[in-house]
Each structure stands twice: as C-alpha cells, then as structure tokens.
Write a structure and sequence with these properties.
Strand content: 5-15%
Mean pLDDT: 76
Radius of gyration: 53 Å
Distance between the termini: 147 Å
CATH class of the largest domain: Mainly Alpha
Number of strands: 4
Number of domains: 2
Low-confidence stretches: 100-113, 126-134
Strand order of the largest sheet: 1-3-4-2
CATH superfamily of the largest domain: Winged helix-like DNA-binding domain superfamily/Winged helix DNA-binding domain
Largest sheet: 4 strands, antiparallel
Number of helices: 6
Shape: elongated
CATH topology of the largest domain: Arc Repressor Mutant, subunit A
Length: 206
C-alpha cells in the first residue's frame, strides 16, 4: 500500500513540475511578444513624426512660393498701369448695299409643280440631244417603258433593271438632259416621270 502511495505522489509531483514549466514558458513568450509590440509602436511613432515634419516643411515651401507669385503679380500690374493706353484705329465705315426691288430680282420660290422640266438647250445641243434620242440603248428603252407605266424613283428602277446605282444615276441624268423624263427633286431618291417628248420617243421606237 505504501508503494502505491509513493507512485501517486511521484505522479502528482511530476504533473505539478510540468505545469510549472509550461507556465514559465508561456510567461517568457508573453514578455517577448510584448517587447516586439512595444518596439513596433516606437517605430511607427518615429515614422509618423518624420512624415509630419516633412509635411510641415512642404507647407512652408508652398507658402513661400505663393508669396513670391503675389509679389511678381503686383509688379506686373504696376508695370501695366504705368504704360500709356494704345489707341485703337478707327473702324472702317460700313458700306450699305442698296436694296434691289423684287421686280428686278430673281424669284427663288419653288414652282407649284415639283417636277423639274429640262432647261432649254441651244440649237447645237438640241441637235446632239436628238441624235442621242435616236440611239437609245436597250437599258434606256427599258427605263422609258417602265416610266410609261407611272412615275418611279431611282431605287425602283435600279432594282427592276439590275444595274448599279451609279450607272442608273448617269442614265437618268442623260434622259433628263435630253428632255425625255422630268425629275422631282423634293424627294430622296428622285422620282422620274415620262414627258410628252419621252412618250413620242417610245412610240417611235416601238
């Protein structure tokens, strides 16, 4: 029985010694961590003080530069006030254009009919146009036949005949200049219709 008591006492003493050693280790570790934290706080405080001093010096420099700029501005204003004013040359007289009565001017108002008729041509151009009318190609003849059914725009004619827009624009311009078609410029794209001259040309070509 005494041996058992000795073993229990030895175990308790060993446990107590272990816990004491553990407590001492934790206390030492706590002191090390506290010292590091204190050193970090001191370093941060030193950095903040150095930054604060630099900011103060920068503010002093800015105030110095602003003071110098005010001095220079005052000198410039004083020099400008001391100079005599520059005389401005007199403005040239305005020339008034005489008003032209409406009866001598050109009436630019649009006509009641939106279709534009081809302008009158000299005799040389008229004879050339007649020669062009006498030699209408197949595409021109097809366009004239389509316009005989009713007015059409260039997009409808292009889609129906199957040519490019540039080719159709040149073709319609030629027919307009020789008086075969009339053109409505108030719409986009232009709308063309057959004139009496065009109907006669179509009847003669049939």
């Amino acid at each position: 029985m005494a041996i058992v008591d000795d073993l229990v006492t030895a175990v308790l003493l060993a446990s107590a010694a272990f816990f004491v050693a553990l407590a001492l280790g934790l206390l030492i570790r706590y002191r090390q961590v506290s010292q590091k934290i204190s050193a970090s706080s001191d370093l941060g405080r030193d950095l903040w003080q150095a930054l604060d001093q630099r900011m103060k010096k920068q503010d002093e420099r800015i105030l110095d530069v602003m003071g110098r700029m005010e001095v220079v501005q005052a000198r410039v204003l004083a020099a400008a006030a001391a100079q005599p004013p520059v005389s401005q040359p007199p403005a040239p007289p305005q020339v008034l254009q005489p008003e032209i009565p409406r009866e001598f001017g050109i009436d630019v108002m649009p006509t009641a009919h939106p279709m534009q008729q081809p302008e009158s041509q000299p005799e040389s151009q008229t004879s050339q146009a007649q020669l062009q009318e006498a030699r209408l190609d197949e595409t021109q003849t097809e366009v004239v036949r389509m316009l005989a059914e009713g007015p059409k725009n260039t997009r409808q004619l292009t889609d129906a005949i199957g040519v490019s827009r540039e080719h159709m624009a040149r073709l319609m311009k030629g027919l307009f200049e020789v008086g075969i078609v009339a053109r409505n410029d108030t719409t986009k794209p232009f709308v063309y219709q057959l004139t009496d001259k065009g109907r006669k040309q179509l009847a003669s070509s049939v």
